[in-house]
Amino acid sequence: MLKTSSFTDKLKTFPQYVIPQHLLSQWIHHVMRWQGGCVTHWAIKQFVQHYQVDMQAAELSKPTDYKNFNQFFTRTLRTDARPIAANHIISPVDGVISQLGAISQHQLLQAKGHEFSLTALLGGSTHLSTYFDNGLFCTIYLSPKDYHRIHSPITGYVREMTYIPGKLFSVNKRTTQVVPQLFARNERLICILETAIGKVAVIFVGALFVGSMETKWAGTITPPYQGQMQSWQYLPNELSLQCGEEMGRFNMGSTVILLLPPNRARWLAQYEPDSALRMGQALAELAT
């Protein structure tokens, strides 16, 4: 039964290898910004009902409040909707934990029985890979129904940001079990924060139909989907972020990977794969 299921998953995933991933995602980018009036409002209403989106938490709670689907998808929340846990490292997003644990020998767990390279995830940076080896990681999947803004998990400063071009495979559970090195192959944006516990990495992982990734300080990073790596360096104290402050946003569902340095924190015991998270929830406690 296990072999049949595995073969079925591979068969269902195969089309992602051959479809024009970036072209389709760029098309979605334009569709999301189409202002279709009552058609757009109807589509938003159907989406809310189908995915059971909690609109009571949104700053604008009615489908008619949004001119296009992208405004709805990147909606802001009420100021009291996501309390920020004090004295903890918080979840940077709403989502579900795919995997979490310790980084060992420069490897992270992608899915049961499948690991991927920390060095490859970090765009080949051996310096950062060495720094985070034996530290902690948490991979959080954002489904279409989730709030799609990313927030700082801890107070600190943005010191560097790197865009790494790549594929745009889906990041759902089936694909993570089938596509080797998925998160190190997909397009991603690495944000390195300097904090009281040292460097912390918040990695935005692109995915199929993710129309764009953007940050609060640099604006839209994609599209266009660039064919080469780009890096930005920031001066100490130039870009400060309070714990819970917005960093950026996704369109459509995707994944965020959080990396913490060794011996500086520990995941709270109640969390495991498939645990649901809300932005602002305590995710890790500082080591004493």
Automatic annotation (TrEMBL):
Source organism superkingdom: Bacteria
Keywords for the protein's UniProt record, in alphabetical order: Cell membrane, Decarboxylase, Lipid biosynthesis, Lipid metabolism, Lyase, Membrane, Phospholipid biosynthesis, Phospholipid metabolism, Pyruvate, Zymogen
Residue positions of the active site: D94, H151, S254
Pfam assignment, any one: PS_Dcarbxylase
Pathway where it operates: Lipid metabolism; Phospholipid metabolism; phosphatidylethanolamine biosynthesis; phosphatidylethanolamine from CDP-diacylglycerol: step 2/2
Gene Ontology biological process: phosphatidylethanolamine biosynthetic process
Recorded GO CC terms: plasma membrane
Protein's cellular compartments: Cell membrane
Protein name: Phosphatidylserine decarboxylase proenzyme
UniProt source species: Beggiatoa alba B18LD
Site feature: Cleavage (non-hydrolytic): G253, S254
